[in-house]
Amino acid sequence: MVFLTRRATFAASHYYWNPVWPADKNQEVFGLCANRNGHGHNYTLEVTVAGDPDPVTGFVVDLKWLKDAMEREVLSAFDHRHLNLEVAEFAEGKMIPTTENIAIAAWRRLEPTVSGAAGARLTAVRVYETPEIFAEYRGGR
Amino acid sequence: MNHSGEIAYFGRRYMLSASHRLHADALTDAENQAAYGKCNNPYGHGHNYVVEVLAGGPVIAETGMVIDLVALDETVRKKILDRFDHTNLNLDELFVNQVPTTENLCRVVFALLHNALPGAKLESVRIEETENNFFQCFAE
After folding, report:
1. Whole-number average pLDDT of chain B
2. Euclidean distance between CA atoms A8 and B9, whole angstroms
3. What are the tens digits of pLDDT across the range A69-94?
4. Could you tell me the residue range of the domain that residue A93 belongs to?
5. Which of A76, A78, A97, B52 could, after both became Cys, cross-link A14 (CB 3.0–4.6 A)?
6. What's A87's domain CATH number?
7. Total count of domains within chain A
8. Pairwise CB contact (< 8 Å): A96 & B64
9. Looking at chain A from residue 34 to 93, which residues have their Cβ under 8 Å from any Cβ of chain B?
10. How far apart are CA A117 and CA A104, in angstroms?
11. Domain ranges of chain B
12. What is the pLDDT of residues A24-74, one digit of tens each?
């Protein structure tokens, strides 16, 4: 079993706001992140898949295929977008675009594609909001 | 909302600068020199350590978060950074009976943070001594 990780970056804006709470509670819990005009980050997305290398190609998965899958399923929706306003999972207050929720949303976008590929399974999606802050999802395990 | 209940992990990286000298009292001077090389030089040396703390737990419905970042920072500052940043590790009481290798520092940091994170479980501690080496301890 070999684990393979591919990294990509996207830039997006967001804010944190729980619509059930009054404004002062949102500001108390989320601080600067509750600024309703939003703010942005350069995010790094790391996708890890695992499998046995193919006996002919020596690949767990084709890296170009993985790059294209990340681009198609995640980056095309998230990159240079306002997550609260333009991305389905988070729009209209459905979900707060915390780093944790972004990692889970990216997993759910990628998982059907990766599990459809012969011999590989998705094992982790890690999202860095800054170089010092990240969240990881492993499919709930 | 917020994928509540899903288990996810939140990681945070902190830097601390400290000095240490690798020297085991049980070994002779020659044995220490052989085991530790320049890390055994008599007056010690220092590193900018990066301490990466990984917390795990269910995503909280109201906030979409696993752990409150400000509370995590405060815990790590009190228990780790205030204690070790800009200090000589050899002089800390936790290293009286063990050499302050980064393996041991990693175990010490894990033990100090174990059961201490506000509302989440400590999953792992990773300490980078330089850009080229790092050490990890995981929850059992």
Report:
1. 95
2. 20
3. 999 999 999 999 999 999 999 998 89
4. 2-137
5. A97
6. 3.30.479.10
7. 1
8. yes
9. 93
10. 20
11. 7-48+61-138
12. 999 999 999 999 999 999 999 999 999 999 999 889 999 999 999 999 999
Can you spell out the DSSP letters for B70-136? HHHHHHHIIIIIHHHTTEEGGGSGGGSSS---HHHHHHHHHHHHTTTSTTSEEEEEEEEEETTEEEE
Gap between the terminal Cα atoms of chain B: 31
Chain A residues 111-140 with a CB less than 8 Å from chain B: 126, 131-138, 140
Q: Which residues pair with B51 in a beta bridge?
A: B14, B127
Q: Under 8 Å CB-to-CB from A100, ≥6 apart: which residues?
A: A135, A137, B3, B8, B10, B59, B64, B65, B66
Which pair of structure tokens corresponds to residue A32? 């600067």
Strands A2-14 and A81-82: parallel
Helices and strands: H and E segment counts in chain A: 5, 5
Looking up tokens 């600024």 gives A35
Q: Closest Cα partner for B51 from B24, B77, B22?
A: B77
Fold classification of B7-48+61-138 (topology level) = Tetrahydropterin Synthase; Chain A (3.30.479)
Residue type, B54: L
Task: Answer with the residue of higher pLDDT: A136 or B4.
Answer: A136
Strands B87-88, B133-138: pairing is unpaired
Q: What burial letters (b/e) apply to B67-85, b meaning 16+ CB within 10 Å?
A: bbbeebeebbeeebeebbe
- Taking residue B96's Cβ as centre, other Cβ atoms within 10 Å add up to 8
Chain B residues in contact with A93 by the CB 8 A cut-off are 1
Spatial distance between the Cα atoms of A104 and A55, rounded to a whole number of angstroms: 32
